[in-house]
Design a protein that fits this description.
Elements lengths: L1 E2 L6 E2 L20 E2 L6 E2 L25 H23 L7 E2 L8 E2 L31 E4 L6 H8 L3 H8 L12 E4 L8 H6 L4 E5 L6 H7 L4 H7 L13 E5 L28 E3 L4 E3 L7 E4 L9 E9 L4 E6 L3 E3 L10 E15 L5 E5 L7 E5 L1
Parallel strand pairs: 12-19
Antiparallel strand pairs: 1-2, 3-4, 5-6, 7-8, 9-10, 11-13, 13-16, 14-15, 14-17, 17-18, 17-19
């Protein structure tokens, strides 16, 4: 390959005119080369553009080594330094790009993307909560004692007679046997706190007589068997003995009448007096006027002795309770009770043996009859 003698451009074989500058080129032209550094030079050039020495002369040096050799040594030193730096940087890069020049002066090292390991958090397995089973309460049985009825047992455990008959697959007419186990349904009111509060009120002592039963004593004193058991924790009350002394807790009566006892073939101690039947005033009667007085009357329950009375329990619509006792079958309310405004009163009567009169004027005694039905009247 030849070159243009005018501009130094490379010419293909057989070209006689330079395609760059347009100068004619002799067909036998040979490329000039600097004798000092070997760089191609133009035909009419005298000084090498690369090393600055005369193209056709090699100047002598003091040490006998030409300038071209110094240039060669310098080039080798540069190349050696580049090679050394390449191998030092080799761990940081897998490829090195060298600038395409006759005498490379720098190396381009592209940045290496070092993947950053991603920390994968391992979550502990989710704990499965096992529900705690709710313990099933053990069934409660009551052993029948002498004289006990379904009504008494239902009252003791806070359930209804229907609850007892359904739980035990019996009817209200079923004859109960002493020693029989009776299943108490799960909705019973097992807490004895209401009975425990009875002990804070008045108490009396009672000597067991021949034929007495715990249920009969509880009935006569208008209390519960569980209350008597709580008041006598040191005694075994399953079997009473004649002459045994019991502590009987009393509780003031409430205006709520006792439910009517359904007769059953089972033996039940009968109260010694008949239930009083209310006569006057008529139920929901209106009593008003300047001289209007209230006379309460009822039927006789039997012949009363000196310590036995008809006890009237009177409650107004505000919840105030009054008790009055008499041997007669009627009682006139005191004028002091007469209200200024129209007020509703409820009342009932029961035959009782006197035991005590509380500080609040409430009559405490032993019930000798069932309570009468309850009536109401309005008074002012």
């Amino acid at each position: 390959m030849t070159e243009c003698t005018n501009c130094g451009s490379k010419l293909n074989s057989g070209q006689t005119r330079c395609p760059v500058c347009g100068a004619e080129v002799p067909s036998l032209h040979q490329q000039r080369i600097c004798l000092n550094c070997g760089t191609p030079a133009a035909e009419d050039a005298t000084i090498c553009l690369m090393c600055g020495n005369p193209i056709d002369e090699i100047p002598a040096s003091a040490g006998g080594i030409g300038a071209s050799w110094w240039a060669v040594l310098l080039g080798l030193a540069i190349i050696g330094g580049l090679v050394y730096g390449f191998f030092r940087l080799q761990p940081l890069s897998s490829s090195v790009a060298v600038a395409p020049t006759a005498a490379p002066t720098h190396i381009f090292i592209p940045p290496t993307d070092t993947p950053t390991p991603t920390a994968t958090a391992t979550l502990p397995p989710t704990a499965t909560l096992t529900p705690t089973p709710t313990p099933t309460p053990a069934p409660l049985y009551h052993k029948i004692r002498t004289g006990e009825t379904l009504e008494f047992i239902a009252k003791k455990y806070g359930v209804t007679v229907d609850d007892l008959t359904t739980a035990n697959d019996i009817t209200p007419e079923t004859i109960l046997r002493v020693g029989q186990d009776l299943l108490i349904p799960n909705n019973f009111l097992a807490s004895r706190e209401p009975d425990a509060t009875v002990r804070e009120g008045p108490v009396v002592t009672y000597t067991v007589q021949s034929g007495d039963t715990l249920s009969g004593i509880a009935f006569n004193f208008d209390t519960s068997m569980s209350a008597i058991e709580l008041a006598n924790p040191e005694l075994e009350l399953d079997l009473l003995s004649v002459g045994q002394v019991l502590v009987i807790p009393l509780r003031p009566p409430t205006a709520t009448p006792t439910p009517t006892i359904t007769p059953t073939p089972t033996f039940t101690p009968q109260p010694p007096y008949l239930t009083p039947q209310l006569l006057l005033p008529a139920d929901d009667a209106l009593i008003e006027g300047e001289n209007a007085a209230v006379l309460l009357s009822w039927t006789s329950g039997g012949l009363l002795d000196d310590n036995t009375f008809y006890v009237v329990y009177l409650t107004d619509e505000h919840g105030s309770l009054h008790t009055f006792f008499t041997h007669a079958t009627s009682f006139r309310l005191p004028e002091a009770l007469r209200p200024q405004t129209l007020t509703r009163f409820t009342w009932y009567v029961v035959v009782m043996e006197k035991i005590a009169i509380g500080d609040d004027g409430i009559f405490y005694g032993k019930a000798l009859s069932n309570r009468s039905a309850e009536r109401s009247f309005r008074w002012r």
